[in-house]
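User: Hi! I'm working on a homework problem where we have to compare a predicted structure to a textbook description. Could you give me the structure for the chain below?
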Amino acid sequence: MTGVTQPIAGVVYPPRETLQRYVEAGALTDETWVAALQRSFKENGARIAVDGPEGALTYAQLDGLTDRAGAALLASGLRPLDRVVFQLGNSKELLIAFIGCLKAGLIPICTLAAHREQEIGYLARHAKARGHLVQGDDKFDLVGFGQEMQRSVPSLDVLISARGPARADVPRLEDLLEQELRSKAIARLQDVPRDPFQAALFQLSGGTTGVPKLIPRFQNEYLHTMREVARYLDYRRDDVMFMPLPMIHNASMACAWGPTLLQGGTFVVVPQITEQAIVQVLKQCKPTWIGAGVKQAVLKLKAAMDAAQVEPGRVRGVWTINAAKYTREVLDLPGCHTFGMSEGFLMFTRDSDSREAREETVGKPMSGLDEVRLLKPGTEMDVAPGEIGELAVRGPSVIHGYFDAEERNRQAFTRDGFYRSGDLMSARVIDGAKYYAFEGRIKDVIDRGGEKVNCEEIELALGEAQGIAEAALVGMPDPGLGERICAFVTLRPGCSPSEVGVPSFARFLEKRGFAKFKWPERVEVLSAMPTTKFGKIDKAELRRLASTPALSGVHHTARPTWKLRETVEFYRDRLGLKLVHAISAKGWGPEGHPDFLHFFFDSGDGSTIAFFYYIGAAQPEYLVHRPQWDCDSVHTAWKVRSEEELLRWKRFLEGAGVAVDMHIRHEIVESIYFRDPNGYLIEIGRATRATSVLDHRDAELTLAAAMEAETEARSGGQTFTSIETVWQRKARLHEELKA
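Assistant: Happy to help. Predicted structure tokens:
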């Protein structure tokens, strides 16, 4: 019978007529993924299934271990169709537990070891998960975390750890395997139902609203995907696949270890991805295929290949998201591009494609049954040939709905059942075939090295942080990861820009239980968010701002001194600044450059004040500092965070015998001024208020007026001499803007 026999509430199954069409076309069969794996295990028993720094497993050994794992999971109280949260990093134990789940008829939920209570709590409750598998040797105490989750999620009955030491009251996978006899395990698994149309696992979406959505992937359709990947890329029985990205990801499962094990090849497992580990893999395992994913992985691969002296001819292909050209030019290896989504659609380029197709597109659909449309965003109208549109897909492996997400499902599909991806594509014909080029996204999601970060989820959280009025996240370009996370914020009254930043947001989000890869890596404070004409935050403008280089403050100021002892004793001994670094060097650069010392004092918050002492050189007259307006305009200004701290410095300096020349409150800063032994002016100030949009506009008008006046005076061979000229022009510019 075509169709599922025991439906799970919340799972959206394809209509029977749709399934029948794909069955008749030969895409979907009555074989389950787990049955196909078991057949491969039997046919390839003596061959190496898994290899890597922690040793190898044959197919026969993997078959036996996964039998015992499946039986042990059932013995723990789990039952077929129960959902099991996976929080295991790349390891043989992950593979053993995962395939054990499939043999036991359990449904893995493919979360990450990096996820925390925000994600795990929601997903476990939403799916009514009964099991939780955690990694016992992670830097973070996942075993303790699992115990906390058991207390907060009523359905989580079973907690099992893998790797690491045994913990009281938490069974270890390794110990359970030792206790389970193979013969009894096989008997226990014999009665597990096998339904090719049933959900095999839940993958995670990138998420467009809130936390990630659960994506049911089905036994025979996932098997179809893997077989299509193997066919399209010509995976062979003697292939060795190395993919360092998370094995729990759809990309690794559907495109790397899944099809490799079905073909009888070898999959390389590396728990800790270091250059040394990659070198070991390249020398020991000799991969023929490398699933590098993002360019950053390709960069690491280059260094390791140089160290390992790998023969390029051994590697048949390297597939990446965006680095095929780099792979060819720098690694001298055949590179291909891939595009995919956990929702079930994949495209690849391959070696037989032209260089233009391989390096400038993400390929074409693998299956002849996949249907692709490019839609005008927000409509169901196809774009004209050559135009950019939203990718919408339908096919044997494309989902028909997220798990228990009725509202999201109404938004995610067209009326005729095409899944709206949120990705922008253009189509081009190359050598008579249609290929697709990735052009961006309309979804508010950041793709950080393959990890999808939902902007709204983090924006809502940051909006509750102390002092934050509004937060908006965008991706900023990164050559390795593709994108990193930039947060733009506006502040509540009374909050200083110095109180917010990457460290404070990291602490806040960690306490809230968000995975580390979701934490902002750059924070910019704005007086107001840019908005569209409809009043919404203008993320296009924020992306433009994020794409420009950012400064993170002052590292150091530097000046010459001809008073070495006096300068050191003043800053180190009288002001109490720590001497943190000194360079001693022979003269370099221009002829006659003297030998010198270059030394640095810590001035707080990562900044330093530095001096050059030129050995044996007389002080030029033009560098003698005079306490007058032109010399003093060049000075160092340090910041403190409060009026109390400023007054403490004033009392401290006066107590140390340092004359405080001035204490002035300007429009936006209050400062004290004093001099060092060289006569250099030093300022310590505090912000009295944050700048606003009015300040920014006023500054633009003032400088525009001044530059006009300067240009006009220069054209007449003169200089302008009065600020009133600036004010008059500024008034005129202001009136022009009003008009």
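For your comparison, note the following. Residues 209 and 709 are 52 Å apart (CA to CA). The mean pLDDT is 90. Good luck with the assignment!
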